[in-house]
Amino acid sequence: MTLGIELFRDVFNASPIGIAVETFEGQPLFVNPAFCSMLGFSEEELRCKHCVDFSPPEDAQKDWALFQQLKAGSIDHYQLEKRYFRRDGSLVWGSLCISLWKSSPSPLILAMVEDITDKKKAEEARYRHSAVIESSDDAIASGTLDGIIVSWNTGAQKIYGYTEAEAVGKPISMLVPPELPDEENKILETLKSGNRIEHFETVRVTKTGRRINVSLTISPIKDSTGRTVGISGIARDITERKRAEQVSCETNRALETQTAVLRSQEELLKIFVKNVPAAVAMLDRDMRYLQVSDRWCADYSLDSSRIVGRSHYEIFPDLPERWKEIHRRGLKGETLRAEEDRWDREGGTTWSRWEIRPWLNLDGLPGGVLIFSEDITHRKHAEDTLLGISRKLIEAQEQERTRIGRELHDDIGQRLAMAANELQELHEDPLILPEVRNRMGKLQKRTSEIATDIQSLSHELHSARLQFLGIAAAMRGFCREFGKQQKVEIDFKTRDLPSPLSPDTALCFFRVLQEAAHNAAKHSGARRIEVRFWGTSDEIHLTVADSGAGFDREVAVKSDGLGLASMHERLRLVGGALSIESQPRCGTTIHARVPFTSSRDSALAAGQE
């Protein structure tokens, strides 16, 4: 009986879920440490509270109504999600499970509470994400790796004509024209390998059979392990832009002929600019407006009757200096373009795709510039939302790594260490038979080895050095411990690191090093690994190189075995990139690089020697 009570007490105190034992009047008798930690109160403070004091009135009322049903015997348990007050006045979400405990002489109430605050925040993020997707004018859809449509927003219905009910469950290939039979398979193979497809311009077929030009940005959807489990894509109808480009090209060809029977180029261009179904402006050498299209005025909220003759810089006084330099280059004869460009204005940030080209007089000299512009702000917002979801998945993965690492180190590791010490004490007992002592010595050695391995694993899952000593010290410690564990020599060197680095960038490099080192130790067969970590004025670099077996890059990219997709995704979230040099029997070099922006970095030094 005593053993059972002690076992219950141990389980009660060690449980990571909050537990409280209450009277039939809702007064706590016992609360475990996890419940105290969740709410920030001491055990004595919680025992002095009534169960309805833990939550806001509206949540407490729901709980108390069910509690009364439990007392009346109409139910023997219930569950609900509710909010709890913490000591500092903040609120946390908990999943409450209440059960009637009949084994006691006088019935008691057993309450178990799990902290689901992070789950609730993730749900709110998903709701916001859904709202952004549904309000977008672009077609946003997701699908399986076999190309079957799973989700379909309102923008997709407007562009392609299919309702959500008509599209979901159908193959995405129904949008591909017959003359492009292999295009969808190539897209899916690229995504399965973990790579993105950005601004891919192609043709798609609507429900009515009409062909439209679209620009596709498609990304793999990955789970917390970095494995590709689906695809998501954004499609923008660029049919009008393509027509405008075609008209522009035809106009330029006409201008190049410089036939004398036509009116001047300037008048022809004015007619073209006025009627083109895209955002186009025609300006002279002094950057004064000669003509604008209706779409240009609509996109920038301008009155076409009041813009001709005015300076471009008067209309847009906050125009960045870099764009003024682009205008000067265009007036000298250059054609320049950007697939996406950011403009931080007082009223908010906008994104555009633009092209600037000179228009020529009959003498062949530039008479001014034509500016073609397309507002892609909605598309960028949708891309940022998808990027935010990937970032939250990785953050959740890191939180779980930290939790498991701490439990391994603080709980299991310490238990194994205590078991090893007890075995050592028994081994030294003179009353133990020699054969038993020999067996116990082997068990003690094996237990100590397991404890050491668990400690190393906990350090890999959560590196305290990275948090308190900086990235270089954390990398150096990992290389030393990993090399000893794997019986390989790791030559780690660092130089010219900018200080400080942002926590996101530091963690990204640390995880890439771990993944690359594990791959080298497991697959290369090499007994020596070189790790170099350095910085330049604008980038930070990490290389992990071995002279071992190497591999076929094309085969590896299609496989999830080397964790390349996970490394690519982590680096993409901090604006970085990954490159791989490897050939069979010629070794492997993993090269990660991230732009350095000190404005986002913390005050922690890099820890370099």
Descriptive notes:
By secondary structure, this protein is an alpha+beta fold. Helices cover 44% and strands 26% of the residues. The chain is built from 20 helices and 20 strands. The chain has helices at residues 2-14, 33-39, 43-47, 57-72, 117-135, 154-160, 164-167, 183-192, 239-257, 265-275, 294-299, 312-315, 321-331, 377-427, 434-461, 464-468, 471-486, 503-524, 553-557, 564-573; strands at residues 18-22, 28-31, 77-85, 91-101, 108-115, 139-143, 149-152, 197-205, 211-222, 228-237, 279-284, 289-292, 336-345, 348-360, 366-375, 489-495, 528-535, 539-546, 577-582, 588-595. The strands form four sheets. A five-stranded antiparallel sheet has the order 2-1-5-4-3, with helices on both faces. Strands 7-6-10-9-8 form a five-stranded antiparallel sheet, sandwiched between helices. A hairpin with a 3-residue loop joins strand 17 (528-535) and strand 18. The longest helix has 51 residues, at 377-427. It starts with a helix and ends in a 14-residue tail after the last strand.
